[in-house]
Design a protein that fits this description.
heterodimer, A: MetI-like fold, 14 helices, B: 274 residues, 12 helices
Chain lengths: 282, 274
């Protein structure tokens, strides 16, 4: 009989998707793994990984990637936490309205944002024309094609990813806790430091890890808003794939990126709040 | 009790004002790019600045008639529609099979179907690049559609699985008792009930595909640039003012799909619970 746990024949419904993912995802992915240890003449080689470990460029880019991802995560957290906190304090109807301000950028094409930032942050851009209005300042700071541009672009992209998990861990707290502390004489700063913040740590951890993971493989923002010193691993993959056609090296970098991401995702799935971020898939 | 609550009720302390100020600064930062491109798109071709000094629809006319922008837009629509239909036709049955199924290896199957979410997009893009290069299909519309379906498929599956959990399983049991087969139940009972979740996931898959850049960038060739790829090369090399008009249209598309999708999603969560 058909019971709540379901039937055996339901596997037939999964098969088409499974075959598709095997051909269009797993097989190409295995291709990357294979290519990373295959020389141009088809022989087995570890030259790609050796080059990765020994070349100054790739070590620099790896360090860059870790540093940019870490800083972007930090900036995102600093900007996203007050937004999530503010949203959590609003009555539901008002919260829904304000959430649009977070959701619209979430669904806006990254190219639209990148284009807007090239206009706003440029040498003669909006920000600099405002800054140079101030007395005594003739040249505004350079904010495009350098680390600042990458940071602004990445932070903007990741704020929604950070707001949602923090907001859900803030909303999960019972308002009675803060109220009880208030009645017993705690000030709002003390309530925040002793109750609200510690209880929202699962959201903070999940959002930060997610941001860090996504940022490791980022490609568009460093390419458009960064300079030559802001190359990240993904840009190197692009360079070796399309410019120099060194597919072995491109694949080796991808494998490093893949392993790094999977390790962090495993960590994410271990922490409370991490599972909701990863989707209800499992 | 009420007296106490009134006494300790919401207070406007310096710290709460500070938090609000920080939050509004954040909202402004988030929404600023969208606010910038809108007035800029009504400027003219000689200035690339905000705020613009004159009003014209010149840039929209440029978008419609110049420099292959329309070709790229049409290709993006075709790829987005194709990949969404592919992702739905594979993903909806898969979601059904994962939620209603009970067989050996189900966890592993779910893991495989969702795994593209867990892999950095650049790695997927490289894999598809090598694969489609080796079979000589790189740069084809087919390759783009398949690549985007890999990318959007897992989201369709996750959304529809959530939708499935809101459907009362007893309706399917009733159909089975009355003699319906597995396919008939899926087609006549489950699918109609799943329609809001399907529409929501379809809309979001469409938008994800339409805006997708990394996979498209690796799979595109000179003659097969999607709109985001064309925008990417335009920002990188020339910064054409037409970008402002394209950005306005894309922002409107996101807004519309977002609002419609959210209403479907809400519908799929509200109904069907006895």
């Amino acid at each position: 009989m058909h019971d709540a746990r379901g039937t055996r024949q339901a596997i037939n419904f999964v098969l088409p998707a499974l075959v598709f993912m095997a051909i269009a995802f797993l097989y190409p992915l295995a291709g990357v793994l294979g290519q990373s240890v295959t020389a141009a003449d088809g022989a087995l080689t570890f030259a790609g990984f050796v080059k990765l470990g020994s070349s100054r460029l790739s070590r620099l880019v790896l360090l860059n990637t870790l540093e940019i991802s870490f800083m972007a995560t930090l900036f995102t957290l600093v900007l996203a936490y007050p937004i999530a906190y503010h949203l959590a304090k609003q009555p539901p109807r008002r919260r829904t309205l304000l959430l649009i301000l977070v959701l619209l950028p979430f669904w806006t094409s990254i190219l639209v944002k990148s284009f807007a930032f090239t206009v706003v942050l440029g040498e003669k851009g909006t920000v600099n024309s405002i800054i140079t209005l101030l007395p005594g300042i003739e040249h505004g700071p350079t904010m495009l094609f350098n680390r600042t541009g990458v940071m602004i672009g990445l932070t903007h992209y990741f704020i929604p990813f950070m707001v949602f998990p923090i907001l859900s861990s803030l909303l999960a707290q019972s308002p009675d806790l803060a109220k009880a502390a208030q009645i017993m004489g705690s000030g709002s700063l003390r309530i925040f430091a002793r109750i609200t913040l510690p209880l929202s740590m699962p959201g903070v951890m999940a959002g930060s890890l997610l941001t860090f993971i996504l940022s490791l493989g980022f490609f568009i923002t460093p390419a458009l808003l960064g300079g030559p010193k802001d190359l990240m691993l993904a840009n190197l993959v692009d360079f070796y794939t399309r410019e120099t056609l060194n597919w072995t090296l491109a694949s080796a970098i991808s494998v490093v990126l893949l392993v790094l991401s999977l390790l962090l995702i495993f960590l994410l799935s271990r922490i409370p709040g991490g599972r909701t971020v990863l989707g209800e898939a499992n | 009790m009420a007296a106490i609550e009134r006494a300790v009720g919401p207070e406007r302390t310096a710290s709460s004002i500070f938090v609000s100020a920080m939050a509004w600064l954040g909202y402004f930062f988030l929404i600023m790019p969208s606010l910038i491109v809108l007035p800029m798109s009504f400027g003219n071709k000689f200035e690339m600045m905000f705020p613009p000094t004159s009003f014209s629809t010149y840039l929209f006319e440029q978008f419609l008639f110049e420099e292959n922008w329309m070709d790229a837009t049409v290709l993006s629509f075709r790829v987005a529609i194709g990949s969404t239909l592919l992702a739905l036709s594979l993903g909806v049955p898969a979601a059904y099979g994962l939620v209603r199924g009970n067989y050996w290896g189900k966890k592993l199957v779910a893991m495989i179907l969702i795994s593209p979410i867990l892999v950095p997009v650049i790695v997927i893009a490289l894999g598809l690049y090598l694969y489609f290069t080796s079979v000589g299909l790189r740069g084809s519309e087919f390759a783009l559609i398949v690549g985007h379906a890999v990318y959007t498929g897992p989201f369709v599956i996750v959304t529809c699985m959530a939708g499935m959990r809101h459907i009362d399983v007893n309706l399917e049991v009733a159909a089975r008792i009355m003699g319906a087969g597995a396919l008939q139940i899926f087609w006549k009972v489950t699918l109609p009930l799943l329609r809001p979740a399907m529409l929501a996931s379809g809309l979001f898959a469409f938008l994800m595909s339409f805006d997708e850049i990394v996979i498209s960038y690796f799979l595109s060739a000179i003659g097969s640039m999607t709109l985001p790829v064309k925008m990417f090369s335009s920002i990188q090399w020339e910064i054409s003012p037409v970008l402002a008009a394209v950005s306005t249209l894309l922002t409107l598309l996101s807004l519309v799909i977002c609002l419609i999708g959210a209403s479907f999603q809400k519908k799929s969560q509200d109904s069907y619970r006895p």
